[in-house]
Design goal:
The complex is a heterotrimer of chains A (266), B (259) and C (274). Chain A is mostly helical and 266 residues long. In chain A, 74% of the residues lie in helices and 0% in strands. In chain A, helix 2 crosses helix 10, helix 6 runs antiparallel to helix 8 and helix 8 runs parallel beside helix 9. In chain B, helix 8 runs antiparallel to helix 9. Chain B has 2 domains: 36 residues; 220 residues, MetI-like fold, CATH 1.10.3720. Chain B is mainly alpha-helical. The chains are: A mainly alpha (266), B mainly alpha (259), C alpha/beta (274).
């Protein structure tokens, strides 16, 4: 019976992991309920947060049992993933073009580099002014964050392809089109996916900011709203939900990457 | 030098930007709805020149810069040792890294409300959020650096009779230093983004107006050229500061180019 | 016996000028290679042998002189040469596309150029792979194969394109000595099948003599031909020939020439250009 358990459970790793979380929770609990350290005075203990989170009739209106919670999550996820998809659709081709074609690189890269340092979040006021409605500005700001990271990593991916592959392609009589599809794109994929993971993380960061400032639903908004009404357990719920969603999203991208690059596991 | 001035790459780059500005100017003149509120380049340029001559502007820059530096320095000071600890001790990593990784994806902005409740002053709130941003980035980069140290260097040192401490200080730390500096440069760029957000959110009643707060006030007041000036300034500041870190890092790891 | 792929390298010179430092990689080097000949160029690191190969392949240009193939000018100053299937290259560190299967790698040349329909190309590929003892791996990725197998696949890929000249850039350098000696025998088997003109560069003298019809010893930078040694060992050859008397004589002759150049290169600390 023991032999059937995954090997993973017999190593010390999962137990140490639990120990780490236990220490964290214990410290949280200690500083808020037991010792009542003044600086953490306003932070609720873990017990309170958990109680609220799993409360069928939450005091502050949001818990695992309320549809409002899921509505916030749905909005955030929709925005984050839409912006991410746009960033990939526009950013990867652009990155490939800049990385591969010298002339195009010389014309466009300086322009890209001029805009890239502008923090995505600082686009918020301008986005609100330029784009109609409430959703587009938030998605735009999120898109900006993911877009530049994607372009940069894709471009690096193309540039990191060993010269020998291009030379081999020349010997083999590949046309430009052949080289693009059979050398450039597959060759850049590893870097592209690293970039996509980063872009996904950045999307969430930008999204929250956008939601806090301009959104009307979503987790960022939920946190800000809870803050303005001093509903602290809800703030923490929002934060932890965001953490989980962000982590899960990056893992999803990583997983997709592994599937698409089956040749890499060797 | 001659070759630089006349290189095709440079002219093409300038050309690309020029084409962009020209299109913008044209779109402004045509009064495209999209750009209804965005000023034409020549108007913007005039406004920028005006703004950079005011003391208010430079005061805002200094305020933001101060916050960035404090949060950043603390983030690096705590981040580098933690990254090294994670990299060197497997047990330590197995215990605390999962907690770290759970907290890391939480966007810095999401920490703001909590920080406001935690810290007595707004200034400390902003700095603590900046700290978090740089801290997580530095730890991850340093950890990555330690994990990619070629084990042969460690073995070479051990076989020459080095103690564990000596191996750490004389081999691991120097070998990780490129990653440390890369992490620091990335974190620096990140902190400027965070300072904007943090200032925007907390600009109500913070007393001291940094660039982010200035931008928000410009938005509220409808002074659009100022918004753009602030945006670009923040971008430039981030660029300059991280370029500085790159240079310092490059100098401190001079040995790299020779290998 | 191949009637194609005869190369005449006529006083070829190559000068690099990176950042104002005038570097003469090749200086009026001349060499005639007959069709179907297995020609091996040996020389110390930095002597220019890779540069010469790159010029023939079309990855680099020459600054003076001329290269003629089968009577018509291949490249000269001002005449750009593109790489092509007629001068297939096998690269030092291998250039099999890791993201494609073995079969795709081997058949992509003829299929993408439209010279062979896919089915026929695949059949031919399987046949050739079987001849080198590599059946059954067609569906695998290069990353799954051992380095020796990868080199063999790359050789098959090169041959599938029916080149006039086969350019081999220190192809076995990254292999361990034991695998290398087995690869030599494999290579010669393939060579005996197809009898293409081969231009092989290496720094390993034993490899050179074992494989070649003629061994060309190059000087250190600037590169010129120092000595040409006719290897009259009978074909087909196997590893036992390495202990024969004639081999010993040839090695002695070549060693004198090359050792002198190796010393010079060592003292000046030349770094490889390409």
């Amino acid at each position: 019976m023991i032999g059937k358990l995954p090997r993973w459970t017999r190593s010390p790793r999962p137990y140490l992991l639990l120990l780490g979380f236990a220490i964290f929770l214990a410290a949280w609990h200690l500083t808020t309920s037991v010792l009542e350290v003044p600086i953490f005075r306003k932070i609720p203990p873990p017990a309170v947060v958990l109680r609220e989170w799993f409360n069928p009739e939450p005091f502050f209106g949001v818990s695992v049992y309320t549809s409002l919670y899921y509505s916030h999550i749905a909005y955030s996820v929709y925005r984050a993933y839409t912006a991410f998809a746009l960033a990939v659709l526009l950013g990867v081709p652009l990155g490939i073009l800049i990385g591969w074609n010298r002339t195009f690189h010389e014309y466009t890269f300086p322009l890209v580099e001029t805009f890239r340092p502008i923090p995505p979040l600082s686009w918020v006021p301008l986005a609100i002014l330029m784009l109609p409605g409430t959703e587009p500005p938030v998605i735009f700001v999120t898109f900006i964050a993911a877009f530049f990271a994607t372009v940069l990593n894709t471009l690096l991916g193309v540039q990191s392809i060993d010269r020998s592959y291009f030379r081999a392609a020349q010997c083999l009589g590949f046309t430009r089109r052949d080289t693009l599809f059979h050398v450039v794109i597959p060759g850049a994929m590893p870097h592209v996916f690293t970039g996509l993971q980063i872009a996904m993380g950045l999307s969430w960061v930008a999204l929250v900011a956008g939601e806090m400032i301009a959104g009307k639903r979503g987790l960022g908004y939920m946190i800000y709203d809870a803050y303005s009404m001093v509903q602290i357990p809800t703030i923490i719920m929002g934060m932890l939900t965001l953490g989980f969603l962000g982590f899960f999203s990056s893992a999803l991208v990583r997983y997709l990457g592994r599937k698409l690059m089956a040749w890499r596991s060797y | 030098m001659f070759r630089v001035i006349f290189s095709t790459a440079l002219w093409r780059g300038v050309g690309g930007i020029a084409i962009f500005v020209a299109l913008w100017e044209a779109a402004s003149l045509l009064k495209l709805p999209f750009l209804r509120f965005v000023p034409a380049p020549h108007l913007l340029f005039a406004s920028v020149l005006e703004t950079i001559q005011t003391t208010a502007y430079w005061t805002a820059v200094l305020i933001s810069a101060k916050r960035v530096m404090i949060g950043y320095v603390i983030g690096v000071a705590l981040g580098v040792p933690l990254g090294l600890a994670f990299g060197v001790s497997r047990v330590f990593k197995n215990v605390f890294f999962p907690v770290f990784e759970t907290l890391r994806p939480i966007p810095p902005l999401a920490w703001v409300p909590l920080s406001i409740l935690l810290w007595p002053t707004m200034e400390q709130t902003v700095i603590s959020v900046i700290f978090l941003g740089s801290f997580f980035t530095v730890v991850i980069n340093v950890l990555g650096g330690v994990e990619t140290v070629d084990i042969r260097y460690v073995r070479a040192a051990l076989s020459m009779g080095a103690s564990r401490w000596q191996v750490f200080w004389r081999v691991v730390v120097p070998a990780t230093s490129p990653s440390i500096f890369i992490g620091m440069a990335i974190a620096m760029g990140l902190t400027w983004e965070i300072v904007v957000a943090a200032e925007m959110v907390s600009s109500i009643g913070s007393g001291q107006t940094g660039l982010g707060a200035m931008m928000w006030q410009a938005y509220v007041g409808g002074v659009i050229p100022l918004i753009i000036t602030a945006m670009v300034s923040i971008g430039l500041a981030g660029l300059l500061f991280s370029a500085l870190i790159w240079q310092i890092g490059g100098f401190a790891t001079r040995w790299r180019r020779l290998v | 016996m191949s009637l194609h792929g005869g190369l005449r390298i006529k006083e070829v010179g190559k000068v690099y000028d990176p950042e104002g430092i005038h570097v003469v990689a090749l200086q009026e080097i001349s060499l005639d290679i007959s069709p179907g000949e297995f020609c091996v160029v040996v020389g110390p690191s930095g002597c220019g042998k890779t540069t010469l190969l790159n010029i023939i392949a079309g990855f680099d240009t020459l600054t003076s002189g001329e290269i003629v193939m089968d009577g018509s000018t291949l490249t000269a100053p001002g005449k750009r040469l593109s790489p092509g299937a007629d001068r297939m290259v096998v690269f030092q560190h291998g250039a099999l596309f890791p993201w494609k299967t073995v079969l795709w790698n081997v058949t992509c040349g003829p299929v993408l150029q439209g010279r062979l329909p896919r089915a026929q190309a695949e059949a031919q590929a399987r046949h050739l792979l079987a001849r080198t003892g590599l059946s059954g791996i067609e569906g695998q990725y290069p990353g799954e194969l051992s380095s020796g197998m990868r080199r063999r696949v790359e050789l098959v890929r090169a041959l599938m394109n029916d080149p006039k000249v086969l350019l081999l850039d220190e192809p076995f350098r990254a292999l361990d000595a034991l695998t290398r000696s087995v690869m030599h025998e494999h290579l010669l088997q393939l060579y005996d099948l197809a009898r293409k003109t081969v231009f092989f560069i290496t720094h390993d003298l034993e490899e050179a003599i074992f494989l070649a019809d003629r061994v060309v010893v190059m000087t250190t930078r600037p590169g010129r031909v120092k000595k040409v040694i006719e290897v009259d060992l009978p074909r087909p050859r196997d590893h036992r020939i390495l202990t024969s008397a004639r081999y010993g004589e040839l090695e002695e002759e070549a060693l004198e020439a090359i050792h002198e150049e190796a010393l010079k290169a060592f003292e000046t600390g030349e770094r490889e250009l390409a």
